[in-house]
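Researcher: Quick sanity check before group meeting.
Model: Go ahead. Protein one:
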Amino acid sequence: MKKKEMVVLLVDQNTTRKSNLSVRLRVSGYSTELTSSGFHAIHLLEKSLKTEQKSYNIIVILGDSEDMSGREILLIMRTIITEKKKLPILFVGNDSDPDEILSIIHEGANDYIVDSGNEGQILPKVKKLAPI
């Protein structure tokens, strides 16, 4: 039996951070797909559902993309896959206000990390939400 490939979709307009995080995830056994565009991320998700050639085990949204806010990406993705268990979404944002964090979780994020510039916090959360 073939081992199921764990694919993480990273949405981040920061190219360096996105590349560094991708390397860390691949070393930990995940495959990654990268985009800096919210529209592209949504397209990739819809395409994966139509073709069934690939599925995402988790989506990591790192703030706003080049064409829409991270929150908009989250909301649109949750209209496509409404169940949090079917597709975990980890949201990394700059807002540390507890009410805003709860609001983002209520809107569909499985977890929220306050962006400290240290992507070291992200890998443990990915492993928890989408274990290999």
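Researcher: Fine. The other one?
Model: Protein two, sequence then structure:
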Amino acid sequence: MEISLKELWTVIHGMVFGAVFLTAFAGGLAGLWSYRAGLITFEGAKERLQRMLLGLWAMAIMAWVTVISGTYIVYVWYRDPAKDSPRSILRANPKTIEWHSFGMEWKEHVAWVAPILATAVVFIVSYYGPRLIYHDRIRRAAIALFVIAFAAAAVAGILGAFINKVAPVR
């Protein structure tokens, strides 16, 4: 089996960077969900905060690495002006043009929501620190932002897998 450099970067972008962010989401969500008064003490919140911030920062960084590698490495090959580029292949067939017009538009634009919102969540948790256990509405807002970030990334990942199946970067 042989894999080209472009195919390798596509795998690294989606199956390494993207998958790490999506997989780690469950841990981040559980940490945020249980970070509330009644479940932990203020001292316990201080101890847990460092671990949660480390995980949230790692996830935000991974989201940025995923989107940047997709935009500035893989997407460049997708948009190659050659007749056999993935973009040309998708746009040439009426049955696959939606993969380009909807799928790639999502990946080009909406996928950027994931790292932006993940970073906002890290900022909220960093700013409030252990006091966040007493600010239930803010903690829930952070959870909502986190879920939206996950949803944007998950849809982008699913679309990317399908697009790569129909018209792979080679």
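Researcher: One line on it for the slide.
Model: The chain has a mean pLDDT of 91.
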